[in-house]
Amino acid sequence: MDKDIKLVAIDLDGTLLATDKKIVEKNIEAIKKIHEKGIEVVIATGRCFNGFWWIRQKLGLEGFDDYSICNTGAFVRRNADGKAIIENPLEKSDYEKISSYLGEYDLQIGIFTKDVLYNNAEVVNDGFRKDQEIMKLPRLKFKDYDDIEGKVARINFMGDEDKLDRFYEENKEALEKDYMTMRNESYALEVLKKSSGKSNGLKKLCEYLDIDLENVAYFGDGSNDIESIKIAGLGIAMANASKEIKEAADYVTSSNDEGGVAEFLEKLFN
Fold first, then answer.
1. Using CA of residue 121, residue 127, residue 128, residue 130, what is the dihedral sign?
2. In this structure, which topology does domain 92-191 adopt according to CATH?
3. Which of 8, 99, 158, 267 is the most exposed place for a label (fewest CB within 10 A)?
4. What's the EC number here (predicted)?
5. With pLDDT > 70 as the criterion, what percentage of the chain qualifies?
6. Rounded to the nearest 5 degrees, what angle is found at the Cα of 43, between the Cα atoms of 132 and 66?
7. Rounded to an integer, what distance in angstroms lies between the CA atom of residue 111 and that of residue 258?
8. Domain limits, the chain
9. What is the pTM of this model?
10. In the chain, what is the straight-line distance between the N-terminal and C-terminal CA atoms, in Å?
11. CATH second-level architecture of 7-87+196-269?
């Protein structure tokens, strides 16, 4: 572990957060400790920027020199004011192309902006409701793209796992000609610009901050973390991650419920 780490990027769900979606206390202490030493600490998440404000607050990451990789890398924002320093929004033409795949499939469409979750159904499904509860964001119903306010970070197809499996199998190849797709939750299929992705957001943020990727440590557990784990100087997988994620990592730490982030940071910086 002889690395000069200048930036630590950490996934939220399944990594920094325990299964109950709370932060293990020793993770808070460890992050504050390295942040006070001048280490950049970056949250890298699939959530919308305003869908984890209380976590940034608890960690003390609210300054003009603090940044978050949001919406699976579609946006990188400054924590103090939410200003986008890197953005890859989906436009109306993208929505029209993506939504055309819906056809007769029994799925809902979710549109995610900085601070609102849009859904096209009268009654939202369980997956959308779960996202809304986790991020504590308002839900608005939309009929067409012109109802959307703010830049669109990602579009989700949402529904039962078996229905999404069939949809993904039948449309994955066509969708991925133009877009990045991500299946990080059983109830959702994310569609983003090809220039999005956590790893692309991490690369661009490091360029912006003039930090080499060799000087980055990245913690993650999910499929949307694997490329970041591979490109970082130190890639750390959680014990609760899949075999594929662990094999891509340089190290495996304890699980999210055991405060694995803190345990590794203490070894790395002490």
1. positive
2. 3.30.1240
3. 267
4. 3.1.3.-
5. 99
6. 120
7. 34
8. 7-87+196-269, 92-191
9. 0.94
10. 12
11. 3-Layer(aba) Sandwich (3.40)
